[in-house]
Amino acid sequence: MKNYKLSFIALFLAAIVSQSGMYAANYEVNSPNGQWTIRLSVDKGTQYEIRNGETLLIAPSPIALNLNDGRVIGAGTVKSAKTNHVENTVPVLFGKNKTLIEKYNELLISYNENYDLIVRAYDEGIAYRFVTRLDGGIIITNEDFVFNFAGNPAVYFPQSPDLRNFEKTYVIYNSVNDIEADKFSVGPVLFDYTGAPCKIVITEADVYDYPGLYIEPNGNHSMRGMWAKYPREVEQPENIYSNHLPVTRHDYIAATSGSRTFPWRVFVLSSEDKSLLNNELVYLLAEPQQLTDTSWIKPGKSAWEWWHKAMLEGVDFPAGNKNLGLPLYKYYVDFASKHRIEYMTLDAGWKESYIQELCDYAATKNVKIIVWTWASMALEDPTWLPRMKEKGVQGVKIDFFERNDQPAMRWGRQLAQRLADLKMIALYHGCPVPTGLNRAFPNILNFEAVRGAECNFWDSGSDPAYHVQFPFIRSLAGPADYTPGSMRNKTKEEFYPVDKPNTIPSSMGTRAHELAMYVVFDHWLAYLCDSPTEYEKYPDVLDFLANVPTVWDRTVPLDACLSEYILIAKQSGNNWYIAGMNNWEARTVSLDCSFLAPNVKYKAALIKDKAASDSYPAQYETEELEITAQTRLNIPMAKGGGFVIQLQ
């Protein structure tokens, strides 16, 4: 404990009291392993800097909340400063690790003006938040969250054209200074110090009743947070099928209680790419679990008709999206039941007239029904969710949030509570980037906020290059609803987006690459996006999809390079799954199985690319072998390729 204290507050300079009575002080907080340091200076304002050892990453930069009455949270005088070291185990109900070790050093600065600044340094990164104890309500005109970069890191920038789109691929800038002044992005954003080497991912955690974070340029070598202004008027306010997009806005970002905690501002820090694949700092910073009874929450997989437009081969009833109805949905329920798939999701186009009968039928098959709806419907019709529950619906896919201003950021938690009261699960689609809500309310299993498989309808952004980017960046914020499982695998040259009736889209990358998504991607409710009749042509693929878990006991990143490849292992009970995923450059990866328990022999089923998969990506081959902790394998991956290994 003494050593922790020495490394924790390495610098606490004497306070300086000026003639004006302002109180100045400097503090330093180190991560428990001593690698990361945040230094703070309080002197008529609060600034921070971040270091990797002795290397400066972010030069002194201001943080503050600016109120409309002229007060500035962060510009006050220090009353006291306290330090703390925390080390404990955090259980995880659903995730990629069953338990997490939470270890951090903390500094609490209390200001005379009735607010605090909490700063934490973890081995996984650094975070801070303000806590206020002010009377009445306050209006926040803006927030200072500035990053004055030392050096000129490259940027993975999920650039957005507006304040409603949270599903962006990355514009990669070689330099912070290359980003034009009028551009901005959703989060998280990755900054790559290639010379350090070090990566910083900037995001947020535990956001409620406060707008979500955007990031924009702020002059030379600098960027800053940006937030949507509070809506004044929204379109079609009385229409529950409207997205209620703002028409006009106020000149402030939040109107809120003067006594509250504010969101964590998070710097995920890593000196090796693979550690980003298992960084759960956002989860650790999130609001603790609010539900005492979670026995009714079931992760799993879902059959789904939307991506392949309900097109089925050789069935004796009308198929396709124009023929959605009871016979078609019963077919999907039968398929799910036969292959131990826990859910069937009805996307847009279903009708309430037959939902009771379908739910009753699905219950006899041990399959649960999820139905799609608009966020406005779920929020504004108080009878809708209870009515669905009464009919037997077990979960809801809630779509078209399309905002992350202050009122919109309340919606996710409000809906999570309403659903929990009814013992219903949900996934959020068309939603803001998550900030840890799934810890407080584990009945929310997925959040889209990713350029998922459905984007193959419209563009070519959801490709193997993107697949080996967002797990290092977007996935730090929480599980993503990518909806993998395409059996229509194309090369980069063959692929074209298509969104026409009775026309099934395709995907880029090999079939083995597609299957690897079920292990690499974080999704506590995993979708099978393709047609049951297509899966049934490939029993080995269907066997893998029936068996692969969606939540895990332990995750072990084995090797990875941002934008190039991922090699990862995940454990469920006594079984392991190993997956590799590749960008558009063919490569051979070396698999070292020493992470496995010694003296245990595993029966392994391998699905991998064939030599011809570069040109014929739907081709794959299977192999059975025995694997132990001493096994070393060289596995080739095609362009846009991959592999999966199931160990039992």
Descriptive notes:
Helix 3 runs parallel beside helix 4 (355-364). The protein has a 19-stranded antiparallel β-sheet that branches. A 7-stranded parallel β-sheet has the order 27-26-25-24-23-22-30. Strands 31-32-33-38-35-36 form a 6-stranded antiparallel β-sheet. With 648 residues, the chain is mainly beta. Among the domains are: 63-285, Beta-galactosidase, Chain A, domain 5 (Distorted Sandwich), CATH 2.70.98; 450-523 and 549-648, TIM Barrel. It is globular and about 75 Å long.
**Shape call:** globular
Query: At CATH's second level, what is the architecture of one domain?
Result: Distorted Sandwich
Beta-sheet strand percentage?
Answer: 35-45%
Structural class: mainly beta
> What is the percent of helical residues?
10-25%
Mean pLDDT value: 95
The number of strands is 38
CATH topology of one domain: Beta-galactosidase, Chain A, domain 5
CATH class category of one domain: Mainly Beta
Q: Low-confidence runs (pLDDT<50, min 5 residues)?
A: 1-7, 9-22
Quaternary status: single chain
Largest sheet composition: 19 strands, antiparallel
**Number of separate helices:** 12
Q: If you compute it from the alpha carbons, what radius of gyration comes out, rounded to the nearest whole angstrom?
A: 25 Å
User: What is the terminal separation in angstroms?
Assistant: 42 Å
